[in-house]
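Give me structure tokens for this 386-residue protein.
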Amino acid sequence: MTTQLLSANHGAALAATLAARANRRGRGFCSGVYPITPSTECMEYLCLQEIEKGRVVRVESEHSAMAVCIGASAAGARSFTATSSNGLAYMVENCVAAACLRLPVVMAVANRTLGPPWNIWADHGDALTLRDHGLIQFYCADNQEVFDTVLCAFRLAEDAKVMMPAMVCMEGFILSHTVAETEVPDQAQVDDFLPVTSIPHRLADVPHTLGQIEVPHQTEVHRRQHHAAMLGVPEVYRGVQDEFEQVFGRRPADAVRAYRAGDAETLIVSMGTMGATAERVVDLLREQGRRVGALRVRLFRPLPAEDIRSVFAGKRRIAVLDRDVSLGFGGVLWGEVRALADRDAVVQNYMAGLGGGDVRPEHIAAWVDDLEGRDAGGPPVMTEVV
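Here you go.
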């Protein structure tokens, strides 16, 4: 184990490289890549690596990048790609195909606002467009978490009980281009953690097809199977955490992270880097004698509803922070978790940081003040932060 200074982009690519080499005893590794800001450095770093049984294929579009991953995974190889924003939007058709074909492709997404007008800064709205299509979604708060989650995503996605793509989301520039100390295991440790990729339905010696036309009842069966596998992801992930801790000596972050929430009357709920900022705010408000806690949702798909509900129990006021907007509705995270609170709780949505605005502790503290002055939740609040 070594400690290296890495951006989240480079951390994701290095984790993918170690995972790629770990499959040299199997059918190897293949990645399709196409550049788009702010995920380009992830692909550039990956292209520089020596992978003894693998290939990084430079293609002409994001759609083709995922097509390469689909072909590689269908042949039984370990596969990875990275993208962002409109590149992800262009890739959507094949992301859905990979999910419906139950292929365990891992994808790093440097979250960036969809345009036009063009904006290259952070917004969760790009990844959230895929929330309903059968891909696992993680949202990370720091560089170490990005690195660890990529390794965990391979183990999770390739589990026989799961077999579906996994997205590891990091906010563009806030994490993708920020350098931080990152613990990097050696190859032997990664070899111990990641078994050889085994895809039961891969194309092999016995001819068969993937993606053929099916009648309505077959689609119903496949969606039911996919849904059941998705619901089982949290349990499988806990096993992945146990194995990770045994091999690397530290435990990756839980699906949801509660912070000083046990005796809290007011709870701040968020995803990504706003969660780390919210924890700082909790410490500051605790010093003032205010019973405030935080909950960071790290695994968004599948949503760990029971874990969230258990933390929500007894909370009088809940502020849900969203770095996204479902236009005409409100924040996506708020829309998903508000029904999990106690019936008499005040649940209020605050949307901020859209387009990469810098959400600072004073902003979150002000939203807590606003929430604690309410007797009932109101319409979602969209705040401009400069």
